[in-house]
Design a protein that fits this description.
By secondary structure, this protein is mainly α. It has one domain. It has 4 helices and no strands. Helix 1 runs antiparallel to helix 3, helix 1 packs parallel to helix 4 and helix 2 packs across helix 4. The longest helix has 34 residues.
Length: 116
């Protein structure tokens, strides 16, 4: 009976880890656009000029395009690396610590988009 409970508990924790990992994946890709908007807002507040299509407009577009690429690469590497880490170290302190760090980074980015 005890062996059955341990297997059942391990299965439930595995599903919980998978669900939290998928939730962090969706949250990471949904937060890209608000982070980009915050980056452009900071750029516009300090370095933009008043003309609608001046040099600052094109620099802002370039900053946004480069930021999309950088954020997408970082988030994709984090998602794939996180999936690998969770698959190899399921239900270990390392796995849960990485999950905590993932959600801490997502919360920090979310707060960044609220305040900026």
């Amino acid at each position: 009976m005890m062996n059955f409970l341990k297997k059942h508990q391990a299965l439930l924790l595995g599903f919980l880890t998978f669900f939290l990992w998928m939730l962090s994946t969706v949250a990471a890709f949904l937060i890209i656009l608000p982070v980009l908007d915050s980056i452009l807002l900071i750029y516009a507040a300090f370095w933009a000029d008043p003309t609608p299509f001046g040099q600052a407009y094109y620099l802002g577009t370039t900053i946004r395009q480069i930021s999309v690429m950088v954020l997408a690469v970082i988030f994709t590497a984090g998602i794939i690396g996180g999936g690998e880490l969770h698959a190899r170290n399921l239900n270990t302190p390392l796995s849960w610590h990485f999950m905590f760090l993932t959600y801490a980074v997502l919360l920090t980015l979310f707060l960044f988009t609220i305040f900026f």
